[in-house]
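New to this. Comment on this protein:
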Amino acid sequence: MPLAVEKDELDTFLRTVFPQVEADFTIDELRENHIIVRLNTAEKHLRPGGTVSGPSMFGLADVAAYLLVMAHVGKKELAVTTNCAIDFMRKPEAGKDLLCEGRLLKLGKALAVVETHLRSDGFAPVVARASLTYSIPPKV
């Protein structure tokens, strides 16, 4: 399915609808069925021991999935996560941003399914994997 919203417009949409995350996330790449979103890791994202916290990694996966769905269905800010399963597999590299690669697995009229893989910037091993389902609001 072709993109309904291009990268720059999607970035503006994110900053308008969710201004509280403005400095946290950057869309690095967007194409059909695929997105890469960066968590600009800061002190607020760390847990004791200096690693990125689980809630921050979940947030990255969730934002990436949301943006990928919006890129394909258009700007429907009321789309919501209905399910998420996340596996934390290894500690992210210290002092590195996290990258989340999302793939759109299914896009229906009411539901979308996205799979994500999180990696430390510059490193190949996956640090977390998530599968997310989004509910798409009906056309009004």
